[in-house]
Design a protein that fits this description.
The chain is α+β, with helices and mostly antiparallel strands and 282 residues long.
Length: 282
């Protein structure tokens, strides 16, 4: 690996923004791994998986944040698999849904240990895809972060935002939450709900660049609206209800994780509409 300063100098000499040294460092890191594998003569028999833990924000056009949310810009990440002697017809793209939870069963099957886990694993093996199949391996993805849960298919995403009974009691009384602007707590109590996560910096960035962030129920047509700007929940109730039932069925399999009416039929589905209109400050 080149020294840190040499990478920065390389970026500056190319006329690039110094912040992009992160990507140049990553390029050199991958090259170091590949070169070492070549030195040991095992490059062609080694599966390299390149991915990320989360998305973040747009890099061009209007600034939109997604980290700490269930919008695709925060959830969707690259997944590149390279294995010269193990992947059939390399260079392909696979346009169906996969999840990082699918990596564990894939590796278990590749190593002949598919029967090793003592309980059912959450993911599905991607081995058929590596062998050339373009068939669907999963038709939906279930997601959660903080106070939000979602189910995503290839064409639609349904998001439910539910708070604790204690928070709903505050909402009913007209309580408003402090607005945060990035790293700055404004001291202004104008937010109708808490952000999804305790990290208010990230929560505020996502909330303030998505007008639907605080909507209790959200439905997006990912084909026509990949940026998820239009909440179609009230316009497509049948689609929304079908996806909500799928999410309910999934959440119901997870013990000890209450989530509104999804796990308790007597719980309110959302706060009373009039509550969010009140302007009472704490």
């Amino acid at each position: 690996m080149p020294p840190r300063q040499k990478i920065i100098d390389e970026v500056k000499a190319a006329g690039k923004n110094p912040v992009s040294a992160r990507e140049t460092w990553l390029d050199h890191s991958l090259a170091a791994i590949v070169n070492k594998l070549n030195q040991h003569g095992i490059r062609n028999d080694t599966l390299i998986i390149f991915t990320a833990d989360h998305g973040e924000k747009t890099v061009s056009g209007p600034l939109v944040w997604g980290k700490s949310s269930l919008y695709d810009i925060g959830m969707r990440v690259p997944l590149v698999l390279n294995w010269p002697n193990g992947i059939t017809s390399p260079g392909r793209s696979y346009d169906e849904i996969v999840s990082q939870v699918d990596l564990a069963p894939t590796l278990l099957e590749l190593t002949g240990a598919a029967n090793l886990p003592t309980r059912e694993v959450d993911g599905v093996s991607l081995l058929p895809v590596l062998k050339g199949s373009q068939a669907v391996v999963r038709d939906a993805l279930f997601c959660e972060i903080g106070y939000a849960r979602a189910v995503r298919t290839k064409t639609f995403k349904y998001v439910a935002v539910r708070y604790t009974p204690e928070i709903y009691a505050q909402i009913d009384k007209g309580y408003l939450w402090e607005r945060v602007e990035g790293n700055t707590a404004t001291g202004k109590y104008t937010e109708p709900r808490p952000y999804y996560v305790d990290n208010r910096q990230l929560g505020s960035l996502a909330a303030h660049t998505h007008s639907t962030y605080f909507d209790d129920d959200q439905l997006y047509n990912l084909t026509n609206d990949p940026d998820e700007t239009s909440n179609l929940h009230s316009q497509m109730p049948e689609v929304a209800e079908k996806l909500k039932q799928r999410l309910t069925d999934y959440i119901g399999e997870i013990p000890g994780r209450p989530f509104g009416e999804f796990t308790d039929s007597t719980a309110p589905s959302a706060a009373k509409p009039e509550a969010s209109k009140m302007k009472l400050l704490r």
